[in-house]
Amino acid sequence: MKATVVGLVTPHVLRVMDVAKQAESGANVDWHLRDAVARTVDELGQQYNAQDLLSAYVQGLESAARDVPPIRKVYADALQAAAAIATRDLRERD
User: Fold this and answer.
1) 45 DSSP 8-state letter
2) Is the distance from CB of 14 to CB of 65 less than 8 angstroms?
3) CA distance 42 to 75
């Protein structure tokens, strides 16, 4: 089976989306977002095409945040926060 960028990145984006959904119910998810992003950066960062994978991860989070209806602001904010954390971690890797 051949691994693709989408196949490698999608589970990580979905993990953050699950955490963001918990934020809608009033849970404090800051630590969970940071943990999910840190694990993703660690796991994808070990791949030979880590830069491409991590860039796709950030783009996936940003895209998901943009596509959220305005009524789900807390959810979108959590996705944007995760994208910001991932972007910061990506810059530190360079």
Assistant:
1) T
2) no
3) 24
What does the alpha-carbon distance between residue 83 and residue 26 come to, in Å, rounded to a whole number? Answer: 20
Task: Read off the pLDDT of residues 24-60 as tens digits, 9 standing for 90 and up.
Answer: 999 999 999 999 999 999 999 999 999 999 999 999 9
Q: Residue 3, Cα to own-chain centre: how many angstroms?
A: 19
Backbone φ and ψ for 43, nearest 5 degrees, come out as: -65, -50
pLDDT given at position 35: 96
pTM over 0.85? The answer is yes
Measured between alpha carbons, how far is 85 from 7 in angstroms, rounded to an integer?
A: 22
Instruction: Give strand ranges (E) for the chain.
Output: none
Between vectors from CA 39 to CA 37 and to CA 42, what angle results, nearest 5°?
Answer: 110
Alpha-helical segments (H) within 1-94: 5-24, 30-44, 50-66, 73-93
How is residue 61 written in tokens?
Answer: 């989070």
CA triple 76-92-59, angle to 5 deg? 35
